[in-house]
Amino acid sequence: MLNMELARKYARAIFELACEDNALKEYGADLAKVQQLYQDCPELKAYLCNPNIQPEDKKSLLKEVFEGGVRETVLNFLLLLIDKRRMMVFDAISAIFGQLSNEKLGIAVADVTTVEALAPAQVKELTEKLERITGKQVTLREHRDSSLIGGVVVRIGDRRIDGSIKGRLAAMTAELMAN
């Protein structure tokens, strides 16, 4: 719980810096770059979160890896996280920054679960329909679940739309059991 509060505090700070610089998307792209490397290279995460390694060594590595690849403010933010021993909450900081950024830019993220990948035409049609429903720009995140049998399940925030065969069968079963 304390870590989430810390993550919110740091995410809000970098978010406000991004807003001041009028570069919300650019900061988001830089943080996503760092996040991607953090996920692709678990050794980097282990190194940066290890309390036995000197902060100066960690900062030197960060400068070597990210200098010129991300904005100077983002690099300085990462160095601050090292100084404050907060790199273990970077995943949460990045996620919260994304939420704050999407909210500010009027973007809704829809998690779409299907059995197979959607065709480009289906993605376009679904995106347009969700944009009409939400009144926001929609970004899709696709997921796979073979247990759905067919159809699609969409989750936007706390709203869930179940158009899957599995969902329909469950609804029919519940209705039959109620009678």
TrEMBL record:
<protein>
    <recommendedName>
        <fullName>ATP synthase subunit delta</fullName>
    </recommendedName>
</protein>
<dbReference type="GO" id="GO:0005886">
    <property type="term" value="C:plasma membrane"/>
</dbReference>
<keyword id="KW-0375">Hydrogen ion transport</keyword>
<keyword id="KW-0406">Ion transport</keyword>
<dbReference type="GO" id="GO:0045259">
    <property type="term" value="C:proton-transporting ATP synthase complex"/>
</dbReference>
<keyword id="KW-0813">Transport</keyword>
<comment type="function">
    <text>This protein is part of the stalk that links CF(0) to CF(1). It either transmits conformational changes from CF(0) to CF(1) or is implicated in proton conduction.</text>
</comment>
<keyword id="KW-0066">ATP synthesis</keyword>
<dbReference type="Pfam" id="PF00213">
    <property type="entry name" value="OSCP"/>
</dbReference>
<comment type="function">
    <text>F(1)F(0) ATP synthase produces ATP from ADP in the presence of a proton or sodium gradient. F-type ATPases consist of two structural domains, F(1) containing the extramembraneous catalytic core and F(0) containing the membrane proton channel, linked together by a central stalk and a peripheral stalk. During catalysis, ATP synthesis in the catalytic domain of F(1) is coupled via a rotary mechanism of the central stalk subunits to proton translocation.</text>
</comment>
<dbReference type="InterPro" id="IPR000711">
    <property type="entry name" value="ATPase_OSCP/dsu"/>
</dbReference>
<dbReference type="GO" id="GO:0046933">
    <property type="term" value="F:proton-transporting ATP synthase activity, rotational mechanism"/>
</dbReference>
<keyword id="KW-1003">Cell membrane</keyword>
<keyword id="KW-0472">Membrane</keyword>
<keyword id="KW-0139">CF(1)</keyword>
<dbReference type="InterPro" id="IPR026015">
    <property type="entry name" value="ATP_synth_OSCP/delta_N_sf"/>
</dbReference>
<comment type="similarity">
    <text>Belongs to the ATPase delta chain family.</text>
</comment>
